[in-house]
Amino acid sequence: MANPSISIPDDLLEDFDRIVDVKEMLGELESDNRSPVIQELMRDYVEENEEYLERYEQFVEGNGKTATAPATAD
């Protein structure tokens, strides 16, 4: 499994960890480990943006050619 390193503002991480801790204490999470929470957030993000995966395939199959957005009427 990948182990990415990301930069997060200290105050955001502190708030995130506090929320994870409280949810674990309330029994809403199985552990106070932030990894499962971040994984779920990433899954939701990917699911909500699946159309971009299709665009990615267009880029790759097009040998690097840019897939353009449809023209809009002005």
TrEMBL record:
It comes from the Archaea. InterPro entries: Arc_rbn_hlx_hlx, Ribbon_hlx_hlx. This is CopG family ribbon-helix-helix protein. It comes from Natrinema soli.
